[in-house]
Amino acid sequence: MTLAFTKMQGLGNDFVVFDAVNQSLDPTPAWIRHIADRRYGIGCDQVLVAETARHSAADFRYRIWNADGQEVEHCGNGVRCLARFLHDQGLHRADHVTLETDAGLTRVERVDDDQVRVDMGPPVLDPAAIPFKATSRRVGYELTVAGTAYEIAAVSMGNPHAILRVDDIETAPVATLGPRLESHPRFPNRVNAGFLAVLSRDRGDLRVYERGVGETPACGTGACAAAVAGMLNDWFDPTVTLALTGGELVIHWQGEGQPVWMTGPAETVFEGRLVTGAT
Ligand SMILES: N[C@@H](CCC[C@H](N)C(=O)O)C(=O)O
């Protein structure tokens, strides 16, 4: 048996993408870990799958697995890549597509050959819905990690994010504090940890330690969550450019109840076929 796949990336956050509309696929956590393995598999941060939509308003269903084999709710860089995949594979020729995820419906628009713009929906700020253990909703929460208190913001973009403001992302303790935040007991579903440096009212630097992966060159939902945290704190104007290790994303949010818009690139790296022993 062989399975067609496409390797894609958005700002260096990389994906193996499968069409499960025209080929049959039954991903198990062990199979996902094998595909994501950079020595024994293809190698990626996330595996993305396009399926037939269940919701009548959606064109396709979009599923995401982290490299550790866990299925998750959303992926911002991935959604741009999936839209480009559907277009380039001839599965959906229009310049916009509506995708259904476990986090709801997402509308993706092609801006030009390089840039894709996504309506990521409104951020979720109610702690119980993130989920984050807190007695009431706040802009900043004190979180104790290994005896040290940090002020974080907690935001869900369908998936959970903790955002910590730092002076400089070069010296931010991403490798040490990232995994401790990821598995902090106040985030029962674990969390993606963003380290944000505010440069001006319309620019910031961001590094993200992703749940189920580790630090990646970029995280789209992480950039949306960091922008929202920065706007709620009045550090940013409604449009901000965030520079991640892999490149820049432009995020626009007009406030409470409004959708977060994310604009950035999506690129195909290569196409291939998985052969025996891979499933
Ligand atoms: N890289 C992604 C986020 C992927 C999922 C995340 N690791 C999670 O567990 O929620 C992005 O670009 O948003």
From TrEMBL:
| Site feature Could be important to modulate the pK values of the two catalytic cysteine residues, where | H161, E210
The record's GO molecular-function terms, alphabetically, read:
diaminopimelate epimerase activity
Note the InterPro entries from the entry: DAP_epimerase_DapF
What Gene3D superfamilies does UniProt report for this protein, alphabetically? Diaminopimelate Epimerase, Chain A, domain 1
Q: Where are the transmembrane segments?
A: none
Pathway assignment: Amino-acid biosynthesis; L-lysine biosynthesis via DAP pathway; DL-2,6-diaminopimelate from LL-2,6-diaminopimelate: step 1/1
Which residues are named in the active-site annotation? C75 (proton donor), C219 (proton acceptor)
Q: Which GO BP terms sit in this record?
A: lysine biosynthetic process via diaminopimelate
**Keywords, sorted A to Z:** Amino-acid biosynthesis, Cytoplasm, Isomerase, Lysine biosynthesis
Q: What is its EC number?
A: 5.1.1.7
Superkingdom of the organism of origin: Bacteria
**Record-annotated site: Important for dimerization:** F270
Binding-site positions, substrate: N13, Q46, N66, G76, N77, N159, N192, E210, R211, G220, T221
Q: Which reaction does it catalyse?
A: (2S,6S)-2,6-diaminopimelate = meso-2,6-diaminopimelate
Tell me which SUPFAM superfamilies the record gives: Diaminopimelate epimerase-like
Where can this protein be found? Cytoplasm
Described purpose of this protein according to its UniProt entry: Catalyzes the stereoinversion of LL-2,6-diaminopimelate (L,L-DAP) to meso-diaminopimelate (meso-DAP), a precursor of L-lysine and an essential component of the bacterial peptidoglycan.
Enumerate the HAMAP family for this protein. Answer: DAP_epimerase
NCBIfam families on file: DapF
Q: How does it assemble?
A: Homodimer.
**Protein family according to the UniProt entry:** Belongs to the diaminopimelate epimerase family.
Know the name of this protein?
Diaminopimelate epimerase
Q: What is the protein's species of origin?
A: Spiribacter curvatus
